[in-house]
Predict the structure.
Amino acid sequence: WDGEFFPGIPKIKYEGPSSKNPLSFKWYNAEEEILGKKMKDWMRFSVAFWHTFRGTGADPFGAPTKLWPWEDGTNSLAIAKRRLRANFEFLEKLGVERWCFHDRDIAPEGKTLEETNANLDEVVALAKKLQGNKIRLLWGTAQLFLHPRYMHGAATSPELSVYAYAAAQVKKAMEVTHYLGGENYVFWGGREGYQSLLNTDMERELDHMARFMEAAVAYKKKIGFKGILLIEPKPQEPTKHQYDWDAATSANFLRKYGLIGDFKLNIECNHATLAGHSCHHELETARINGLLGNIDANTGDPQIGWDTDQFLMDVAEATLVMQSVIKNGGLAPGGFNFDAKLRRESTDVDDLFIAHIAGMDTLARGLRNAAKLIEDGSLNDLVKKRYSSFDTEFGAAIEAGKADFELLEKKALEWGEPKVPSGKQELAEMIFQSTL
Amino acid sequence: WDGEFFPGIPKIKYEGPSSKNPLSFKWYNAEEEILGKKMKDWMRFSVAFWHTFRGTGADPFGAPTKLWPWEDGTNSLAIAKRRLRANFEFLEKLGVERWCFHDRDIAPEGKTLEETNANLDEVVALAKKLQGNKIRLLWGTAQLFLHPRYMHGAATSPELSVYAYAAAQVKKAMEVTHYLGGENYVFWGGREGYQSLLNTDMERELDHMARFMEAAVAYKKKIGFKGILLIEPKPQEPTKHQYDWDAATSANFLRKYGLIGDFKLNIECNHATLAGHSCHHELETARINGLLGNIDANTGDPQIGWDTDQFLMDVAEATLVMQSVIKNGGLAPGGFNFDAKLRRESTDVDDLFIAHIAGMDTLARGLRNAAKLIEDGSLNDLVKKRYSSFDTEFGAAIEAGKADFELLEKKALEWGEPKVPSGKQELAEMIFQSTL
Amino acid sequence: WDGEFFPGIPKIKYEGPSSKNPLSFKWYNAEEEILGKKMKDWMRFSVAFWHTFRGTGADPFGAPTKLWPWEDGTNSLAIAKRRLRANFEFLEKLGVERWCFHDRDIAPEGKTLEETNANLDEVVALAKKLQGNKIRLLWGTAQLFLHPRYMHGAATSPELSVYAYAAAQVKKAMEVTHYLGGENYVFWGGREGYQSLLNTDMERELDHMARFMEAAVAYKKKIGFKGILLIEPKPQEPTKHQYDWDAATSANFLRKYGLIGDFKLNIECNHATLAGHSCHHELETARINGLLGNIDANTGDPQIGWDTDQFLMDVAEATLVMQSVIKNGGLAPGGFNFDAKLRRESTDVDDLFIAHIAGMDTLARGLRNAAKLIEDGSLNDLVKKRYSSFDTEFGAAIEAGKADFELLEKKALEWGEPKVPSGKQELAEMIFQSTL
Amino acid sequence: WDGEFFPGIPKIKYEGPSSKNPLSFKWYNAEEEILGKKMKDWMRFSVAFWHTFRGTGADPFGAPTKLWPWEDGTNSLAIAKRRLRANFEFLEKLGVERWCFHDRDIAPEGKTLEETNANLDEVVALAKKLQGNKIRLLWGTAQLFLHPRYMHGAATSPELSVYAYAAAQVKKAMEVTHYLGGENYVFWGGREGYQSLLNTDMERELDHMARFMEAAVAYKKKIGFKGILLIEPKPQEPTKHQYDWDAATSANFLRKYGLIGDFKLNIECNHATLAGHSCHHELETARINGLLGNIDANTGDPQIGWDTDQFLMDVAEATLVMQSVIKNGGLAPGGFNFDAKLRRESTDVDDLFIAHIAGMDTLARGLRNAAKLIEDGSLNDLVKKRYSSFDTEFGAAIEAGKADFELLEKKALEWGEPKVPSGKQELAEMIFQSTL
């Protein structure tokens, strides 16, 4: 495979909102400053290697539909390297400076773990070269869900030998992430959960998962990896119940086992909605718990009960997402990884570009709107005013834990029936929508 | 109102499974021993005063349908006392030895908090007398959701004066619970949450809720109340998001604010399913976190997205519930409170008995089945065998946190590809169903 | 009550998108022409009397919160008339020319049906006067769900006397709708369904409902009412299953009983999402079946499983709604009824205006966007091109039912493996979002 | 592959409820008469070839886990025949006399349609022989969803050549079904729907689907196939919206296009729950519309939003299912096809038997319970009594359509306020549960 992978696609440029060119940015202008920071530094976009280069279009009822021209139908080392080159050309043309991968996405599994690790090393060496000093690895991770050995879990498998195998795999994945200058390392426990409580010892499995995470923290320190360890919550699918159900559940796990200072969370919007939350809620929950580390940018379908991993195209939702990011002071060393896939029926090479451009533009538009909301100030004022009774001396006493029930009762009797003003929700919604 | 409230209803007796008499127990035999304990001591049933004596049959589209003969359409003190007597006759005929109430269920609100407290004291004095030494108060609680003053929350209201009012109300409710010998005290934060994040400072609200709970713990100690403080998780309704979403979210809150040793949870089955969990899952999550304190026994409808609070009539679900209770060593000082209401369209006085009898029988049948499962042993063996690879020296080392990634990798390389046996889920389901 | 009901509120004017005045329109400009028709003729907005003037803010866990200054806490005839005057002042200031009501919203129920009808007549006479020649009644309907007599259904009640009572009530409601020049008449069968199949004869109930609808059609003809009869689908709430579940279910009912030509549908967005559909889907299903008659404009919350009846504030959704309306050639004699209510916590009189203004603006913005999409043409072209293989002679033969399996097999063998192009979903989404 | 496929598995026998042998029936006793018919004639069980012999255990996040000993990892004709022999041995040992298949399950696709048809003929000839006169084909169907050519639909593909290809495939599948003595022929339109309305002309697609179904009806007549044509509703998955959403939606389609007399429905329990209905509801809806033809026996998980296709193990649900079947006078020429699959983690050959045995036993137990309910009679009486006011002369007039609104109003005025008795739902539930 000589020359370009995407010969018909130019370097994608910013052409502004009036452009009708699908292969241009209408809102994302990488170098433009918003609220004192370049757009690209707010966003820190990353392409997910698995969806973009290993996504086949298969679904539970359908065979693969993607037949990219650089593929030959095999999972050989040679093709693995070719795909990697396609990835770096894609990043360059799209103007995205980060990528993410699972170990098994980029290199084929061998007959033994030794052979698998050797395959991985060979591909990683090429990745190091292709990264050069322009491209960074946002995060790496280990694929602990596809292989049948992990069908009952990896760290939570009832089989000790699987636990050991998973540990060996994560060890290696952490090493190559470190070698490639990865900024974070992610744990998504797709099989860490149960299909039925009837055959499961949930307590023992959770204990095993905690031991595994402790060992990961220890190994991170040992090899001097400075990136952030991230847990990615998801409520279910493939399991009936996944132990990292949502942000609060993951936080409880981390607190229970004394791991709270060692991890942050990678929040995915589609996982949020599957858990019965808005994406905004999960981001805020993570932020308030000091755990907002990275965002897997995608969206689901409100009428669908499984992970659709669509590119986020809703400007209102993107604005709420960016509000949380701004409140968090940005995401660095985390970023926005596009954990989103082309629809099964989108089979043109240029669909890969169109989908990413639309996703980047939507979030960029969200950033512009969030900045407008802050500059306008009226929504912020509305919220601040609602809580102003606590911005008093007695309010401060309550917030400092100095008001006991007897004192509070005394005040309540003194004050009589409280006056309760309107919550002004419709006004807040009007202000929000007007800014879009 | 002289004489009996339920003149046509006899004392309900155990007649065994072959009885066709709706006003008899077919499975619940209070004094019979199961697994070394009387059925009544496993169950510790309680009638929820609000559903049974204050439930009107109203719904969001419909006016009240219940016109119990002892009511006169008012909420006077006199009627409050009459209702209370009806409650104790109901308990006696049903053979239930515990009850639960909200402060505002049993006594009418006055024009001022002082007057309201005086009303409460008057009714509580009667309750004390009627309890005698046969009936116990399983728990009391404060109704912090019905009155408009609480529309934005109680402990999480943006209005400081509402926070103080709520504190005064909880203080009093704790006092009367203590006075009545209450075994527990419950917090259900029906308004502690948000309708929209746009007008909400979630972080500040959660901090306020923590301060409130700390003050409750301090007050409990001050008055010498020895009962358990229970938080009742519910994901939403009436709010879009309730801060005590589910067991794990509540546990995270308790851990974050250092309250984990001071509270347990009151798990409600219908709240579990609204949060996307099976009831069994929530019970096990509470148990594993050392937090299973009480059960609000009811069930929802799997096709309905709001709290239906139906009497649990599903034997399979009841068996799973009782499995958790047995693993927990029982619930005492907690119990099973029937947080369940007659359907709007069930308007006969005897429907009140039929519903409770069916609910008690279903849980009693669940207990009998759970005992059978334990005696049979084959399901337990299946589970134990699945984890047996960890019942080894190396397994113990892992569980003790002594196996680091390097050691585990060494073992993984040594052992090669793991053998992974069948999960036997269908066999587990077959065994389970056969016992029902 | 003399003088104005809303003294602080001016007549709401169009001030354009840059206005920051909450009491102005930013997108709705009644007289402006879009696609050859005035905005007000596209929209035909209507205020729902029940939500706006009878909404109390109560919810299943909370008492009323709205204490409008013109109310005195009673449901007297005098207050009924005062409310009606408030309604017409509200319409005038808002610039909305239509309203909708249930019989029992506008006039109190008396001790007998005769007295109730007399009350209704008295209020309706005032309404006729207040309507003058500026305000129209978009539709009337009978409230067949609030009163306990309807707890098992109205047309589907197992009680024959309830069926008769409901018929008498609908008869009268049709008469007053006709008298007030109503453009449509609506059936929402909130209790026409079941809570449990165990105690229900669904087949017999559906037959009764059909008989009832036939009688309504006959009576419409008898009194010379020319308006459209509309069925409003809703899947559930208050019942577990409502017989008019969604558009397709309602269409099946109408077809099965030979009523298809006599009714259209009133589609409500929040009901659509409760049924598992997008609002756009329900509108298109109604339209394709020739049944799109009216829209109950509101929205739900994608994370909430009950009817929240929020004002629609989502511009993307509003654009899809208006696309269907444009394809339908407008809605006349139907329109957009705001079947939406203030949040319980919104308790200022001006919240009533803010909510309606935001709702009207959002739909107006949707209309502007839908017009832009049509003028731009590229989305339409994309769709047309996808089906172009059927715009051929053989395609026409298939569509005319002239291609049997043998002919089709012959062609399939001749043509070999089909070429299947990309579905271009992300491109379609990009075009759509760019227009917003 | 010589000799037995399941050497360790004996012919499964009925051993009664006290048996602990997983490889025995505890409730299904094929020749035993219940309500005047043999159990096997009520049930007419069928094994689904695709789940049992082509199910790989793969899921969206996982590779195949099943490595049955008779497979060699290829999809060759030789293996296809071997699998078929395994199927017939399985049927024989299980004591099931029917099977179902998709064309592509039993024979591999060739390079051309001609080659594919030849492969199919070769396998079908073997099937004919193996069926002998003991085994019947419950139904055949065409797999119109797996191959990428069908990614946009088959009968509803925007590509005319795909429509023709699908027609050719269905033609052949109908022929082989007829050749094998099939009792029914099924249409499951897994790709007949849309992923997004933005790029879809729903009206045109539905018209095409109707033309396709008309052609199928014509071809059925042409070849003299006497079996029933069945449509299998499913709301979504793989598409966002499938046109055969549920029973009512399918009935509307059939009525709209004049096909109502030519088709019945194949109701699947898991599809029912995905559509927001209980399985019982869908069965009753089909039955009432005269459309209940066959049942795809399985169940879903109430907390999971995708098709889990589990073996039905819930006795209460099975009892409700059997109630509908009894009311329908049985299902013949339809039956119960086990459209259920082993869990991914169940990988033993004997799990195939255990799962089927448990599913058969559960339905058999449901039949026994449904018969008990009928014999007991009290539930039936409760329902009949509820509607008894219509079992009168005036009730008959209403049901005959002879009571117009004026007559009904006259009666309503005469009768005054209706008396409405209790719905007795809890009593109905108590009776139902007591029978289990």
User: Anything to note?
Assistant: The domain at 13-376 of chain B is CATH 3.20.20.150 (TIM Barrel).
